[in-house]
């Protein structure tokens, strides 16, 4: 049996052979001045569509040109080099990846550097804005290093610093008393 031409490198020239098939597993590749349709292979449980000009490793099953299959190549362009034992998977076009670090931490990161780091000890570190649509329960201490704002963007927006200033300096008329009260004797820190 000859092994000549079993394996070739090519590039995707058409990511979907039959646009009528929603999940057409075939793509068209260009290689050595030729074109061919191949079945794109994905690990079990994963699927996708390779974009045009993706480098692909093409294999001919039993050496038959009509039985081509291929595996897409993800260019290695991480912001930080991989350490031994690290694994990443994600979208090479959007540059969003999930990376399992060598120490077991999980890093989810996009091209803009927004990230979520889940550590093996149970911590989650989010680098970016967070929107919560629903009730939030915190069983522990909430530590804030910057300002807290209530009613953000509304006409009655107020910050915690505003509330503290009002509380620490307020006085008001006493009920059935001789005059206004003094500011509180225990100020908010």
Name of the level-1 CATH class of the largest domain: Mainly Beta
Unreliable stretches (pLDDT < 50, length at least 5) are none
* Structural class estimated from helices and strands: mainly beta
Distance between the termini: 83 Å
CATH architecture annotation name of the largest domain: Beta Barrel
The succession of helices and strands, N to C, reads EEEEEEEEEEEEH
**Structural shape:** elongated
* Proportion of residues in extended strands: 25-35%
Number of domains: 3
Structural features, described:
The chain is built from one helix and twelve strands; from the N terminus they run ββββββββββββα. The protein is mainly beta. β2 and β3 form a beta hairpin. It folds into three domains: 7-72, OB fold (Dihydrolipoamide Acetyltransferase, E2P), CATH 2.40.50; 87-127, no CATH class; 135-189, no CATH class. The chain has a five-stranded mixed beta barrel. The protein has a five-stranded antiparallel β-sheet with strand order 6-7-8-9-10, with no helix packed on it. The protein is elongated.
Descriptive keywords:
189 residues; OB fold (Dihydrolipoamide Acetyltransferase, E2P); 3 domains; five-stranded mixed β-barrel
Topology:
Layout: E1 7-14, E2 26-31, E3 34-40, E4 55-60, E5 68-72, E6 87-91, E7 96-100, E8 106-109, E9 115-118, E10 124-127, E11 149-150, E12 158-159, H1 160-169
Parallel strand pairs: 3-5
Antiparallel strand pairs: 1-2, 1-4, 2-3, 4-5, 6-7, 7-8, 8-9, 9-10, 11-12
Write a compact overview of the structure shown:
It is built from 1 helix and 12 strands.
